[in-house]
């Protein structure tokens, strides 16, 4: 069953954020746009490249009213240790959630049960706490955070312009479509 269009399920977790431990719940995903980025594990190989890439897009995303959360099944303590020991991860200023209970990973249907690790899952969540976009990659395939910027812009446009949709490769400012009987078979 797809999670698109569903509200984020309840959870409570500890996170590492800018030198402090904080609590995070599904309520943090309401009132603004959110990106939740699951990754398999701290102190690994592809994961730090993805998280750094996400940090490189963080200011742009914040400018769009988006908060970013990374999640792995590691603890918030492990996130702090990784942040303190890795030059790459030390750059991160967004929230790093620990999910050792696997509750969040199960809620988002990205838990690899046999391994106790999360798939590479990315979720765009609207201000109502409803999932609008999902991308899930195999463990060896890293993601490109710049693509998230365009997806967020498209999701925001569609939300703010009922009756319009964004075609493939849509860029901010380019033409959209207004689905109608007149368009059937014309595209």
From TrEMBL:
InterPro entries referenced in this protein's UniProt entry, alphabetically: AhpC, AhpC/TSA, Peroxiredoxin, Peroxiredoxin_AhpC-typ, Peroxiredoxin_C, Thioredoxin_domain
Keyword annotations: Antioxidant, Cytoplasm, Disulfide bond, Oxidoreductase, Peroxidase, Redox-active center
Reaction catalysed by this enzyme: a hydroperoxide + NADH + H(+) = an alcohol + NAD(+) + H2O
Bilayer-crossing regions: none
PANTHER family per the UniProt record, alphabetical: ALKYL HYDROPEROXIDE REDUCTASE C, THIOREDOXIN PEROXIDASE
PROSITE patterns referenced in this protein's UniProt entry, alphabetically: THIOREDOXIN_2 (PS51352)
Native species: Paenibacillus allorhizosphaerae
Subunit structure: Homodimer; disulfide-linked, upon oxidation. 5 homodimers assemble to form a ring-like decamer.
Protein family (similarity comment): Belongs to the peroxiredoxin family. AhpC/Prx1 subfamily.
GO MF terms held by the record: peroxidase activity
Entry function: Thiol-specific peroxidase that catalyzes the reduction of hydrogen peroxide and organic hydroperoxides to water and alcohols, respectively. Plays a role in cell protection against oxidative stress by detoxifying peroxides.
Lineage of the species this protein comes from: Bacteria, Bacillati, Bacillota, Bacilli, Bacillales
Enzyme Commission number: 1.11.1.26
Protein name in the entry: Alkyl hydroperoxide reductase C
Location of the Thioredoxin domain: 2-157
Location of this chain's protein in the cell: Cytoplasm
Keyword Transit peptide: no
Source taxon at top rank: Bacteria
């Amino acid at each position: 069953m797809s999670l698109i269009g569903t509200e984020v399920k309840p959870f409570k977790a500890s996170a590492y954020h800018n030198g402090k431990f904080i609590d995070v719940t599904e309520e943090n995903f309401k009132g603004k746009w959110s990106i939740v980025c699951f990754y398999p594990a701290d102190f690994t190989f592809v994961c730090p490249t993805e998280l750094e890439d996400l940090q490189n897009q963080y200011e742009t995303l914040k400018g769009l009213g988006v908060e970013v959360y990374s999640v792995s099944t590691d603890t918030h303590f492990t996130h702090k240790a990784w942040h303190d020991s890795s030059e790459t991860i030390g750059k991160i200023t967004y929230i790093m959630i620990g999910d050792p209970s696997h509750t969040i990973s199960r809620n988002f249907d990205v838990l690899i049960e046999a391994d106790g690790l999360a798939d590479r899952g990315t979720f765009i969540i609207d201000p109502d706490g409803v999932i609008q976009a999902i991308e899930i990659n195999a463990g060896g395939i890293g993601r490109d955070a710049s693509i998230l910027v365009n997806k967020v812009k498209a999701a925001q446009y569609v939300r703010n312009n009922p009756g319009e949709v964004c075609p493939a490769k849509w860029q901010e400012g380019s033409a959209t479509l207004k689905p109608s009987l007149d368009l059937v078979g014309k595209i």
